[in-house]
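Quick one, tokens below. Sequence please?
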């Protein structure tokens, strides 16, 4: 079976190399669960393109970790992923390591993994994206001819802690997510007061809103300079991430409503952010699709 060959070849790459314990331990754990049949392997050649075009026609989205109808954890390989594999195609190993990290996190959190809220799901994604960067840096770089996509992941891992890659590929900002995560921790552990929290949130909102005039419109998407347009798209994604995960700082939506009523300055920023996102969503969604196409077209090394 092709998937067995891919796992075998990945084993050859990692071997006993523990340069990254994260990569090594994740792979060894996943390999053992497969050998012990704790996880099912499924090949799904009949992915309906109308329902899941990305899985049907993509390498980057060509496999995923889920539960089958019987509730058994399952690694699902798409046919495009398998058909395009060659021993030198390093992107296939990266995609597999990404899903192996999801498998690893599932067995650490079996009761809650598939019941996760949006914040928890993105944290799991960050775990998997981080292993992509570590795997490329410590096991592939200098040994494989990296594709543009793989080189982009590596540069993002080394230069901005994967913020630019999550913006491009996951449509969310790892940096803003971490900032809010830290504020939530400080607030809930009583390191900062509610007033201090609101002050910090207003400061961050103002910082993000100061670049709102650079948000893309439809004309920009079709005519703007390539480097400039991604930077401007990044401004939009950062403020969108801020809005999405802000609520998790508080103890439920009732406290969030109470905060907005009690602090009108904060409420004004929140409403402004919501309005700006709705006004620029179409243009940024269009550019986001073009990024997906670009990375799908440039994920295989030459």
């Amino acid at each position: 079976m092709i998937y067995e060959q891919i796992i075998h070849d990945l084993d050859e790459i990692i071997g006993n190399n523990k340069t990254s314990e994260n990569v090594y331990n994740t792979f060894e754990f996943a390999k053992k669960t497969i050998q012990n049949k704790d996880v099912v392997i499924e090949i799904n050649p009949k992915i309906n393109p109308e329902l899941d075009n990305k899985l049907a026609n993509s390498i980057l989205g060509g496999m995923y970790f889920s539960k089958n109808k019987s509730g058994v954890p399952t690694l699902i390989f798409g046919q495009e992923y398998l058909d395009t594999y060659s021993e030198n195609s390093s992107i296939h190993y990266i995609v597999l390591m990404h899903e192996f990290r999801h498998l690893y996190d599932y067995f650490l959190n079996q009761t809650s993994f598939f019941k996760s809220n949006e914040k928890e799901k993105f944290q799991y994604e960050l775990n998997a994206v981080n292993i992509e960067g570590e795997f490329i840096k410590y096991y592939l770089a200098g040994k494989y001819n990296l594709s543009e996509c793989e080189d982009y992941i590596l540069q993002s891992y080394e230069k901005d802690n994967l913020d630019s890659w999550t913006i491009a590929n996951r449509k969310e900002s790892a940096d803003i997510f971490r900032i809010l995560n830290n504020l939530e921790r400080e607030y809930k552990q009583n390191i900062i007061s509610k007033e201090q929290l609101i002050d910090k949130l207003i400061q961050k909102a103002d910082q993000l809103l100061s670049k709102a005039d650079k948000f893309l419109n439809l004309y920009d998407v079709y005519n703007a300079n390539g480097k400039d347009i991604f930077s401007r798209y990044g401004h939009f994604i950062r403020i969108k991430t801020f809005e999405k995960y802000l609520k998790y700082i508080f103890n439920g939506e009732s406290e969030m409503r109470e905060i907005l009523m009690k602090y009108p300055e904060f409420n004004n920023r929140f409403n402004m952010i919501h309005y700006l996102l709705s006004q620029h969503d179409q243009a940024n969604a269009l550019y986001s699709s073009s990024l997906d196409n670009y990375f799908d077209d440039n994920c295989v090394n030459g």
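The chain has 14 helices and three strands. The radius of gyration is 21 Å.
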